From TrEMBL:
Ranges of Gly residues composition bias in the record: 633-658
Protein name: 1-deoxy-D-xylulose-5-phosphate synthase
Highest taxon listed in the record's lineage: Bacteria
Positions that bind thiamine diphosphate: 73, 114-116, 146-147, 174, 265, 352
Named cofactor requirement(s): thiamine diphosphate; Mg(2+)
One of the protein's GO biological processes: thiamine biosynthetic process
Region entry Disordered, spans: 630-674
Gene3D superfamilies xrefs: 3.40.50.920, 3.40.50.970
GO MF, any single term: thiamine pyrophosphate binding
Amino acid sequence: MSILNDLSGPMDLSSFDNAQLSELGEEIRQFLIASVCSTGGHLGPNLGVVELTIALHRVFDSPLTPIVFDTGHQAYVHKLLTGRRAGFPSLRTAGGLSGYPSRAESVHDVIENSHASTALSYADGLSKAFEHAGSDRTVVAVVGDGALTGGLAWEALNNLGVSTRPVIVVLNDNGRSYAPTAGGLARHLKRLQDRSGYAAVVELLGGTAVPAAAGVDSIFTALGLDYLGPVDGHDIAAVESVLNEARGRRVPVVVHCLTSKGRGYAPAENDAVDKLHAVGIVDVATGRTPRSAHTTHTPVLTWTDAFADGLLSAGEVFPELVAISAAMLDPTGLQRFADRFPDRCFDVGIAEQHAITSAAGLAMGGAHPVVALYATFANRAFDQLLLDVGLHRLPVTLCLDRAGITGPDGPSHHGIWDLSMLASIPGMRVAAPRDAQSLAEELHEAVGYADGPTALRYPKSALGPPIRAVQQWDGMDVLRTADQATVLIVAVGSTAQAALAAAGTLAEGGVECTVVDPRWVLPVNPSIVDLADRHLLVVTVEDGIRSGGVGSHVRHALSAAGTSVPVTNVALPTEYVPHGSRAELLAHYGLDAAGITGAVLAAVRGINSGASGPVRAGLGMSGLDAAERSGSGVSGSGLSGRGLGAAARDGGGTGGGTRNSPALRPLQRSQRTR
């Protein structure tokens, strides 16, 4: 009989004896290994909190006592204990179980923001709300030592330290975020462990030691919180005992629990990089991607790999180049640079705001910092980018991995706000490479630029094939053209491949397109106006939100120049994008080849419906139906409620008037090569 299979909810835990709890812990660990290895997800963090989470749900009555998980990637055990075991086969798939806490899934999930260092502020606010309502309900916040390297956590602790409200901070100390925890806090926590060990030895020898619960010389007690621990986070009884003591104090208390990331799974325990923090579909026996007769022995290169290569090359050329990571050396591709230039690479912990302002100081001192972040985490440092870097026009380069649609990690991990955010910073130049070669070139250009900040953005995916430019046009790469091209497709970064495929489909139906990669997409290259003026329709394609993105700036540039060429923006709506595979989501929002084809055809139909005869001919009306048939054979994404491309197209604001074909000046090679 399986204890886990029969578990209906956390209330069942109170009836289990020690042997049953131990058996349950082992079942959960084995279930997680088998399940996550088959679906992908966060493995190492969850293996480290099995016993801790069981103890939490035995001591506290969730959801009456809210349990707030910081970051949330360690909440799989919590999901199992709150009745969601059956959903794990759909983990992180479209319409399936979220990889993070989700309020839509369960009343036991309090928050679903999966950015680090936020839980203590949520807990502070919740406890204030309870007090205001006349209640003394306890609030529990579970936070890792890695997340405590973020400044927001200390802002919350500073406030909790002068509070008398019952907030219990469960410090899950495994010594790591991805890599070992950076900074002085890690040393302090280690000293607390050493002191506890010393006290135990003294007591064993018959002496008198200061009780661990007294919290002498803890940074937490210095701030005004009580401190209990450290305690073995894998000993359910010990954790329950200290949690019960903390609950009885009715004041803010830090409970320091020591855990091991990846515990109980040898491939994770032996993984020096990040203890198998997150995995794709892997072989349970090895923790690595399975090989088959059909698997190539050539590793699949990613955009992160291309950045790592480009940065290493740039580091050899530019001695002033230094690199900064916010606790993600390996995930952002900085590890090889750190190995090659250890004195030129700085890991500042989960502290994006500090990373950017520290980069500003480095730039003031003559260095050229490259700050590598996930695009979604750059949102946290907007003020620093705007005023600490931008205002001073400092040569800082921001390299944004996971830009655009990322896939299964869901709303808080999609990097879809960066273009709109960066576009509002005066003097900021933004590049969007389309392949590995353009990434390396644009990175070198960025590091060689000394007159202000720069940024590069690239997605989370395998690299596509190289995309050769057929010619250049004032700093932009023309990827496809035809003498009678009537549609200009402006492809931002990695959307170039889908844009080219769409252009091929459209050409088969008689609608010829020019496809251009602007390379540096913001500010808009003024020559786009001239290029647009040689076409009857402009279509911009970007995997960021439409509002304030590249397309809106292209439209503004054309309007400011008095050009009435209609503009259609194929982009994302201003909404929170759910989790699902990257391919599914791109198709759902009309950012694959079929969606782009459909957007162009819809715009052409819109123009032709009110145009005179010559325009109708110029836009290939005779081949329109054929092109539509060619582009309609792609099946839907499986996501309901939105037509193909409909949510991502914006045909509004196309300007007044239409243009006759005599005004059309097809691009000739002699005109475009400059």
